[in-house]
User: Fold these one by one.
Assistant:
Number 1:
Amino acid sequence: MPDIIKSYQEVFNNYLEQEISSSEPAGLYDPMSYILELGGKRLRPVLTLIAASAFGTDKEKALDAALAIEVFHNFTLVHDDIMDEAPLRRGKPTVHHKWDVNTGILSGDAMLIYAYQLFEAYPEDIFKPLMQLFSQTAKEVCEGQQYDMDFETREDVTISEYILMITNKTAVLVAAAMKMGAIIARTTESNKEFIYAFGKNLGIAFQLQDDYLDAFGDPKSFGKQVGGDIIENKKTYLYLKAKELASKELALELDQLFSIKPRNPAEKIKAVLEIYQETGAAQATREAIAAYTKSTFEVLESLDLVGDYKKVLKAFAENLMNRKV
């Protein structure tokens, strides 16, 4: 990660440590501190700070909005983990496993409320657009989660529906994080829209890259089990593209593989990866990642930023898309 981006991470992490402290009742607030201290890339809050700086405003002014974005993101993880019955998050026990499901629900609710409270630090002309954007984004994230749950039991999911799902579940929060920095900087409406489009395209590319790495990543560097989506029978872009491109025989074989949860998942993963390669789905996914990354960079050219911030945002995006984890 470029040094300037690391410096933004440090500023944000210092602020997070300062603001997130244990309170009473401990049963409500300790789980909040726990999930926020598990780390993660802090991509979204860093983008809020960078966007504010890129439009000529001190990043310190964007810290509360950045924290709101990170608290909200982690709230969604707490509730998603409950829905998925996931035992681990970033290699550590999930909140509902460390405590219990009721604690996970209530602490998650408190995190969402806290995220809204953080916007109260801003003057009226900034507070209102921030709140409107945040509420709309929160609603879209819920819609994305519902689509994701619906897709588990549907056999007719299309690629355009999948893109809509990941746009709502992942990309709109990246886009909103960037637009918040622009709102705080009081930049032009066109700049606000362009930075939102930059974030949205970047978020879609990021999620497609995540799908790809889940299947073809290096187990040593990926940080979680490679092939996890295959074991869980998740209908990712790779799966949908393979279904679209496969012969009737291969499509039937893929259907059969995605209807089982074998005792030895390694064989299933190997067979599915071979189909992804043979059908051209792996190549098509790489091309989709490249296309959304290209759109991200095209939008960047339309932005009116101070100093070298086009280079900073380009380096950030390139680093994200060349990652192995």
Number 2:
Amino acid sequence: MSEIQKFYTEKEENIAKQGKDESLKQLGIDFLTKTADTQYSYNFSWMGRPIIAFPQDMAAMQEIIWEIKPDLIIETGVAHGGSIVYYASLLELIGGEGLVVGIDIDIRKHNRDLIEAHPMMKRIKLLEGSSISKEIVDEVKEIAATKKKILVCLDSNHTHEHVLEELKLYAPLTSIGSYCVVFDTVVEDFPKDWKWNRPWGKGNNPKTAVFEYLKTNDNFEINKSIDHKLLISVAFDGYLKRVK
């Protein structure tokens, strides 16, 4: 075994070991719940745009994008635009004609102005409207029809009903070998009495939608090794790899 092979073998063994350590995984959940009150995920930015994400998940997304080298990334949920700028910058580094389509029901003017003025806007297309509306879905499908490698990220309204509908509409656009990543599945892992002050909560969230979707769709498998690697993530059970 070469030194390089040895390194990667040891890494996989360590990840598997972490995945079997329930106390270690609970520490990750405890960190997430403890820092939720201070909105820890709002602390970070990418190339000047607030990204509202955990660095661990963004590291995982970088690994996925480098592995897949998609020519289209579809993301529902834009907010301040940090994640679409991040994905666009990675596509810029990879080269080629990769495009990021960002969809949001309400792209606020101050955010739109800053995104459109960003150097990475050359790889971004913004669509304003409901991600599950026929008009938006038709436009995305038209763009996707010209692409070969497609990565999907779902990060908008986090209710079970909405995410399940997004999965039905967008997951089929994912190319084989690529991912449909469902963010904020961690809502289901928070304590039962946690007050979200949102339409979603325990029993009604992206993770419940993922589990419901997978009951009748075997084209995707949850890549648990990503969860075990990260330990701190808002997307536990949300890294769905298309296998067929």
Number 3:
Amino acid sequence: MFPIVVFAQSTKKLSPRQQKKAERRERINKLIKQEEAGALIFNKQSVFGIKLNTDGYGAFYEKGKYKTITKTNLWWIEVNEHKSPKEQRFATGDPYWGYTIGYPYIYAKVNNFYNFKIGLGQQRLIGGKGIKNGVATSLNYGGGFALALMKPYFLDVSDPLTGETKTIRYTDDENLFLDQTRIIGSAGIFKGFGFTKFIPGFHVRTALRFDYGRYNELVSAIEAGINAEYYTKEIEQMAFNKQHKFFFNAYVSIVFGRRR
């Protein structure tokens, strides 16, 4: 009769810390395999973006819902400030060490033009993250509602009759508002919000997004695109200049966020 040999199998239980490390290692391995396959597989994504437009600047928040390997449904909210190409900044006061110390203002500026936008669209994956290519390229497009916020631009001026300083907008006294010999300076960015007018419209945009994030769960991208807006009334930004309803610009954004 031959002896029966029993080999005991180690059943050592991992500590919570070791278990957490093992789970993280397994998750990272899965992410690496997904990247090697070139796919962006997730349920949802949330990103923020900071924009530099050809006529101003802005920021947006975007949510995405995964539909297929190459298609994601998007919605976003966005705020911007549009600046006129005719804007010219001046400063009042006395020169000091080669610099003018005073109250800078923009001559003949009638309104600050801000806008709020909400939109729907899609993201289409063009090229995934391969082994040799660490950048995923996507085409984003869509459009939606736009709301122009026209905040009157106020100046501090010297009253020619009394010599006292008073704060006015263009519609209060056009001649005094445009008399540079009487302008003391801008009344400040916060002056005039109580007089803001709202003009509805719509917008469309399209862009290419280049996502260079290390893992698919992270969004680190640069986006370059174009944007068009149309409003129901003319937008008055500067005196002496033709007013427009349609605005077109190009932009570059830094985008960051997470997928899950």
